[in-house]
Amino acid sequence: MFTVRPGANLSAKLFFLLCLLFLHVSISTAEEPIRIGTSLSLSGIYREPSHMIRKGYEMWVKNINESGGLLDRKVELVLLDDASDESAVRENYLRLLKEEEVDLVLSPYSTPLTLQASDITEEAGYVMIAGGASGSQLWNRGYKYLFGVYSMADRYFIGYLDLIARQGIDRVSIVFEDTVFNRDAARGAFEWAGKMGVEVDEYISYIPGEDSPENVLIRAGLDEETALIICSYTDDGYAFLSVLRDQNIRPAAIAMTVTPIHPLFAHRLGPSAQGIFGPSQWEPVERIPYPGTKEFIENFRTFAHMSPSYHAGSAYAACQILEKSVTETGSLDNKILRDYIMSIDTVTVIGRFKVNHLGMQIGHNPLLIQWQYGKKEIVYPRRMSTAEAVFP
């Protein structure tokens, strides 16, 4: 215990008081949790992948707190619902920064929402690791605090086009929702089709709510010799598959963004899931040789009572990158964290993380999955495959 004698001079008393103040601030800071804010689509068109992302974030928070916290402080997740709405996501991140006064942020799901959210965080100088978006527009704005986890959308269908070309299928129709991410995925598919020697029969954009799946598929002019690529979000994906089933339309092969990735896809769709392809950022296959992957899969199944999709894996990976940057720098200063993330070449539970000078992910490559007899199999690339691709 400190004491001050009655005859002590003023400077000694002042020094003593400053020591007490410093000690009080240090104790208070150590007791306060590190607050990490995010906005997710707990309702609306992005709800299914957002549910997986939420579980990924929440499991990481649980794990980090059980291991002693971050910088010896507990972590608190501040989560707001944006209902898949662009204006709501902007309001949420403004609230997180100004009212909730969070220390760090995590990203929402989807390219459209991440575009909006990153406008807010970039202006405020907060690092955002985009664990749920891959549209190229994100990286064409000269932002300094935004970093990608996913490989780019324009590379999603390389494996699928390679496989169908090898199968002798030389025609494909491409249907895509007129949104940033799906335009990028479709454009990339168009370009890679040419490189693979596959002719694009139809290249059709549609507006959700205005163009019916029936009419779009009629315009696609499908037959048993033509493959199909559908670039859409989850609800529209199921709508297209329902039309194909009900009208007994059987393309030579079908690949889709997002929809087939959820572990309950076959449970929801039934026999119609058979043979559907989908690009994936990662899959919960325990023999994939990344540090911590097996443990993550096992823990997630216990935590969420289902297998993780790549959305959950990518969310957890984003948290790992944030954790590493804070731990290695010993700082919550977002400028320091930004400089560190820009420089690293590391591995997460879903694979390599390395960004270029734009913050765009260049170290990670997508997989291709196919549903076979109620089970999701990796069919591309060959070195990571769990089964051979099957065709009608």
Query: What portion of residues is helical?
Result: 40-55%
Q: Tell me the number of structural domains.
A: 2
Briefly, what CATH class of the largest domain?
Alpha Beta
Quaternary structure classification: single chain
- What is the CA-CA span between the terminal residues? 82 Å
Strand content: 15-25%
Overall, the morphology is: globular
Estimate the mean pLDDT confidence. 93
The third-level CATH topology of the largest domain is Rossmann fold
As a whole number of angstroms, the C-alpha radius of gyration is 24 Å
The number of distinct helices, counting runs of at least 4 residues, comes to 12
Structural category is alpha/beta
CATH architecture of the largest domain: 3-Layer(aba) Sandwich
Number of DSSP strand runs = 14
Q: Characterize the main sheet.
A: 4 strands, parallel
- What's the CATH superfamily of the largest domain, by name? Response regulator
